[in-house]
Design goal:
Largest sheet: none
Number of strands: 0
Structural class: mainly alpha
Shape: flat
Radius of gyration: 21 Å
Distance between the termini: 20 Å
Order of helices and strands: HHHHHH
Helix content: 55-70%
Length: 171
């Protein structure tokens, strides 16, 4: 990769074209298309077929009867909710500070998108997994973002289009 990157870790198009453009097989392209189609289908399926049940269970979650585990845990003092909110806020602020202060090449809004994606997909993917025992992976999103970043902020790199990236398709 060092042969096609500038010192700022962006794509050097002249060196890229001189070295060798990226060639992808048809099956590789189909696997990405089917993966993104599957993620879209999971969201649509969950909203169309389970929206009433989900809303009913969210509303009824606080006034249901405790199971044996909940009754056993009543012996211990409950952690206040504000601890969780405080930790969440501190971690979000620190993560945004890291994105802005160090050269991660991940904008602050990109970090927020990386937090939004699992928030949106966890429940629908979990429903399909529980019903069918078929896991719908998000590997395509992670691999696509891996082309953009070489750090742990992997999910949203493909959204940041202002810089030329290694994973860009050749014209």
């Amino acid at each position: 990769m060092s042969k096609i990157l500038t010192p700022e870790a962006t794509l050097d198009e002249v060196a890229y074209k001189a070295y060798s453009p990226l060639y992808m097989s048809t099956t590789f392209g189909f696997s990405y298309a089917l993966s993104f189609g599957g993620l879209t289908a999971v969201l649509s399926h969950t909203l169309l077929f389970y929206h009433k049940e989900l809303f009913r269970k969210f509303r009824a979650a606080s006034n249901r009867e405790d199971d044996i585990h909940a009754r056993l845990y009543r012996k211990y003092p409950e952690v206040p909710d504000w601890w969780y909110y405080f930790l969440f806020a501190i971690m979000m602020v620190l993560s945004i500070v890291v994105c802005e202060v160090w050269d991660t090449r991940l904008p602050w809004w990109g970090f927020l998108v990386t937090q939004l994606i699992p928030f949106i997909f966890t429940l629908p993917i979990g429903i399909v997994q529980a019903i069918t025992n078929i896991g719908i992976g998000m590997e395509s999103c992670i691999l696509m973002a891996d082309w953009r970043f070489e750090c742990d902020f992997r999910v949203c790199g493909w959204l940041h289009v202002s810089r030329k990236t290694v994973g860009e398709y050749d014209d």
